[in-house]
Write a structure and sequence with these properties.
The chain is α/β, with parallel strands linked by helices. The chain has helices at about 50-55, 80-85, 105-115, 120-130, 150-160, 180-195, 205-215, 230-235, 240-245, 250-260, and strands at about 10-20, 20-35, 35-40, 65-70, 70, 90, 165-170, 200-205, 215-220, 225-230. It starts with 7 loop residues before the first strand and ends with a helix. The protein binds adenosine-5'-diphosphate and magnesium ion (MG). Magnesium ion binds near residues 49 and 93. It holds the Pfam family ABC_tran.
Length: about 260
């Protein structure tokens, strides 16, 4: 199904989030539709991670509404919200893995939290998820300190997929990776999204990622979504920040490749 026609799975309306006098999100509204990969871009410190963390309930909002998979935290019961939380997975920007747990134990962790499975079954599921993200069984008993940056991100992705989520939240999944590892990770995200039918909310400042995987982009500026649409619409957007971001010097090469796929 064309994601543009799909139901809204994350609906944010007039969201206000702040810390003390500092208003980070200022009446922000945004929809995410089932089956799409939405890329969220914006200046560093602009509130992308705050938006993600508020949507999943880790940060409080001042006002506005957030409805995820039909549930509004303001009105849903604790049990209902917990049932909804099982239906998403998260890859955080910082400290992706628990350093005292092995790779396998990291992936088992959400199952321990939310499911009543035997240890044997947890391990089987964890190994299957690790296989999906391209981690060898040999690496399952390693600790995070023994992993490369790319492997760490893959394990974190496997953990985000542990509960067979419908929505995956990714916060700067390719930051800190070399371009080749980042490209491989983009391909992995796209493949998993298509095979598992995921909805993906991806914060990124990686233009290559945006072009390679996102169906739609939302630009967060001054606490609001000031532009949203497919890449082509963003390239045509006249807003100064969007123009600078997509048509800046760093962007030129990627944009050229997008507009001239044969060259
Ligand atoms: N827990 C917090 N307490 C106070 N300020 C915070 C907190 N989390 C984020 N901020 C501030 O909110 C702003 C947006 O941060 P963030 O969402 O992390 O930006 P980014 O778009 O780079 O992800 C920043 O000014 C940051 O310092
Ligand atoms: Mg951030």
């Amino acid at each position: 199904m064309d994601p543009a026609q799909s139901p809204v799975v994350i609906g944010v309306r007039e969201l206000v989030v702040g810390f003390g006098d500092h208003i980070v999100l200022d009446h922000l509204s945004l929809d995410v539709r089932r089956g799409e990969i939405l890329g969220v871009v914006g200046a560093s410190g602009g509130g992308k991670s705050v938006l993600l963390r508020t949507i999943i309930g880790l940060l409080p909002k001042r006002s506005g509404t957030i409805v995820v998979l039909g549930a509004d935290r303001d009105t849903a019961s604790f049990e209902a919200m917990r049932a909804i939380e099982r239906r998403w997975g998260v890859l955080f920007q910082q400290g992706a893995l628990f350093s005292s747990l092995t790779v396998r134990q990291n992936v088992e962790f959400p199952m321990r939290e939310y499911l009543k499975l035997s240890q044997k079954l947890q391990t089987e599921v964890a190994m299957a998820k690790l296989g999906m993200v391209g981690i060898n069984a040999d690496d399952a008993e390693k600790y995070p300190a023994e992993l490369s940056g790319g492997m760490t991100k893959r394990v974190a992705l496997a953990r985000a997929l542990a509960l067979d989520p419908e929505i995956v939240f990714l916060d700067e999944p390719t930051s800190g990776l070399d371009p080749i590892s980042a490209g491989d990770f983009d391909t992995l995200i796209k493949t998993l999204q298509q095979t598992l039918g995921l909805t993906v909310f991806m914060v990124t400042h990686d233009l290559d990622s945006l072009f390679a995987v996102c169906d739609r982009v939302a630009a967060l500026v001054d606490g609001k979504v000031i532009a949203e649409g497919p890449i082509a619409a963003m390239l045509a957007c006249e807003h100064p920040w969007v123009k600078a971001y997509f048509q800046g010097k760093r962007a030129r090469e990627t944009t050229h490749a997008f507009n001239h796929p044969a060259s």
